[in-house]
Amino acid sequence: QKEVEQNSGPLSVPEGAIASLNCTYSDRGSQSFFWYRQYSGKSPELIMSIYSNGDKEDGRFTAQLNKASQYVSLLIRDSQPSDSATYLCALPGGRRALTFGSGTRLQVQP
Amino acid sequence: DTAVSQTPKYLVTQMGNDKSIKCEQNLGHDTMYWYKQDSKKFLKIMFSYNNKELIINETVPNRFSPKSPDKAHLNLHINSLELGDSAVYFCASSGPQETQYFGPGTRLLVL
C-alpha cells in the first residue's frame, strides 16, 4: 500500500512570505509527483507535476523532489491571500489512479 | 467549455434510497475515475475505467456500481444508501499523461 504523508496544518504565513509545503512517500519506485490545490468547496486542480530530482519552477511555485529521501515539497513565493487553500500531494498508486495525501491547509494572512 | 462535468451537484436523500451520479468528459480521455472525499478531506480512489473496461475496483461496498456506457461517460449508482455514504464524490479523467482532471464534485448527504 503506497502511502503519502502530509502535515494537515493549518500552515499560517503572512502575505508576501514563502510558504513551504512538504510531503513524504513510502514507495521508492514512485516516478511522478503531483501537487493539487483545492479551494474550500471546490475540486482539486493541478498546479505542478515533477518527475526528476531537483527543482521545477512555474511562476511563484517551485516543486522540489528528492527521491533518495522520498520527499517532495512545494514552495510558494510571495504568498497571497488567494493562495489560501488545501494543497494535496499525489503520486500514481497503480493502474493510473492517484494516491493522495491528506492535504495541508494553507492560510495566508493579509 | 466544461472539461469534466457531473450531475447533480448536490444530492440530499434518505437512508435506504437508491441514487445515481453522472459524469461526462469532453477531453477525449480514455480513462475515467470515481474518487470519494470524506469529511476529513481525504481523497480516495473508488473505481477506474479505461475504454469502458473496469480496471480498478477498490474495497468499496457492492452497493456501489459504476457503469461506463462509452469512453466519455462514467456513472455511479448507489443502492440502499447509508449515513456513512455522505461525502463528496469526484469524477476525474486522464489521457496518456498521468495528469488527472477533476469534475466539480457531487455533494451527497444521506439523512
Protein traits:
heterodimer, A: 110 residues, 6-stranded mixed beta sheet, 5-stranded antiparallel beta sheet, 11 strands, B: mainly beta, 4-stranded antiparallel beta sheet, globular
Description:
The complex is a heterodimer of chains A (110) and B (111). With 110 residues, chain A is an all-beta fold. Chain A contains no helices and 11 strands. In chain A, 0% of the residues lie in helices and 57% in strands. In chain A, strands 2, 4, 5, 9, 10 and 11 form a 6-stranded mixed sheet that branches. A 5-stranded antiparallel sheet of chain A has the order 1-3-8-7-6, with no helix packed on it. In chain A, a hairpin with a 2-residue loop joins strand 9 (85-94) and strand 10 (97-100). Chain A is globular and about 40 Å long. Chain A starts with a strand and ends with a strand. With 111 residues, chain B is mostly beta strands. In chain B, 0% of the residues lie in helices and 58% in strands. Chain B has strands spanning 4-7, 10-13, 19-25, 31-37, 43-50, 53-57, 64-70, 73-78, 87-94, 100-102, 106-110. In chain B, strands 2, 4, 5, 6, 9, 10 and 11 form a 7-stranded mixed sheet that branches. In chain B, strand 4 (31-37) and strand 5 (43-50) form a beta hairpin. Chain B is globular. Chain A binds chain B through residues 32, 34, 38, 42-46, 49, 86, 88, 92-100, 102-103, and chain B through 31, 33, 40-45, 48, 50, 55-56, 90, 94, 98-105.
